[in-house]
Amino acid sequence: MTRKVHCLALGEELDALAFQPYPGELGKRIFENISQQAWQKWLSHQTMLINEHRLSPINPEHRKFLEGEMEKYFFGEGSEKPEGYVAPEDQGD
After folding, report:
1. What does the pLDDT look like over 17-70, one tens digit per residue?
2. DSSP class of 13
3. What is the pTM of this model?
4. DSSP alpha helix (H) spans, the chain
5. HSE-up (13 A, CA, CB side) for residue 61
6. Are 18 and 8 in contact (CB under 8 A)?
7. CA dist., res. 20 & res. 16, Å (int)
8. What is the domain-level CATH number for residue 19?
9. Which of 29, 53, 54, 65 is exposed most, by the fewest CB atoms within 10 A?
10. How far apart are CA 92 and CA 23, in angstroms?
């Protein structure tokens, strides 16, 4: 049976993550309070942040920035899109 969690990000009872997706206390909070669906949304948002800010996940300063955005995304006021960001158009059929 799939573990459920009341997702703080989406405000409803949803399937929980199967494992802690990030190390440390932040990862523990995410595992206990965030759904698979919200985590997938974060991964898309994180990809956009990496691309728009030209971040490198191996750079410690960039990782610290992304961790701060993750904290805001799930437990704070939310992570904003970069100024001037325009989402790519759907490629549709």
Report:
1. 999 999 999 999 999 999 999 999 999 999 999 999 999 989 999 999 999 999
2. E
3. 0.84
4. 24-33, 36-53, 60-75
5. 3
6. no
7. 10
8. 1.10.3880.10
9. 54
10. 37
